[in-house]
Specification:
By secondary structure, the protein is of the alpha/beta class. It has a single domain, classed as Acetylglutamate kinase-like (Carbamate kinase, 3-Layer(aba) Sandwich). The protein has eight helices and eleven strands. A nine-stranded mixed β-sheet has the order 4-3-5-2-1-6-10-11-9, with helices on both faces. The longest helix has 25 residues. The radius of gyration is 17 Å and the shape is globular. The two termini are about 30 Å apart. Bound molecules: uridine-5'-diphosphate (UDP). Homohexamer.
Length: about 240
Amino acid sequence: QAESPTYKRVLLKVSGEALLGGREYGLDNATVKAIAEDVRDTVALGVQVCLVIGGGNIFRGVAGASAGMERAQADYMGMLATVMNALAMQNALERMGVQTRVQSAIEMSSICEPYIRRRAIRHMEKGRVVIFAAGTGNPFFTTDTAAALRAVEMGCEALLKGTQVDGIYSADPRKNPSAEFYTRLTYLEVLARDLQVMDAAAISVARENGLPIIVFNIHEPGAFREVMLGHGRFTTVK
Ligand code: UDP
């Protein structure tokens, strides 16, 4: 008998950093393709999937601000960076035969659809992967917050956060080998211990709406699909 996934509809947040591969800037095609394959295989399980992609591999508002730019202006550049990443992911998925739509929080009608909540839900019901670009459309926010917001708007049962490690630890396990791994945490534990998983605004949106956050390693081949089947290592925040 075929295994059945834990959730019917989820949002996967992929940071811009995750698309770097070994690079210091921009997109690594092989990495984008590997993540797209994992999304394709998860969709094949019958899971409705939407994506939020960050932009940190190209531009971050805070970096622009610390170089002397006006913060809001720099943040708009950061949001544009997320659109590039969304188009790259759309390209990779469509080449594998996965139907997709990009919806941007900032209108760019010649490139993608504008964000329309009910239309996005309809796309997902038809089995299309919806990629949300331009974050929330507002400066001073992050794509983590956009991910929590869109997940709630879409009625997703969980927010999957693909990171560089396999879950939440008491400290960065790449720097501190004795760091403790957590299987389960509450929203308040994440906030109180200042665990660097998502920013506080994102955690608050998830908490207020009872949206579970699942943190896993996006670079483990097939990890997204495995987590959807309840396998492998991950941290659940709820
Ligand atoms: N950004 C923004 N509002 C949003 C989402 C993103 O202003 O709702 C800008 C912000 O400057 C941020 C940049 O876009 O630094 C890239 O997003 P983020 O840093 O969240 O990307 P990630 O860290 O996931 O790669």
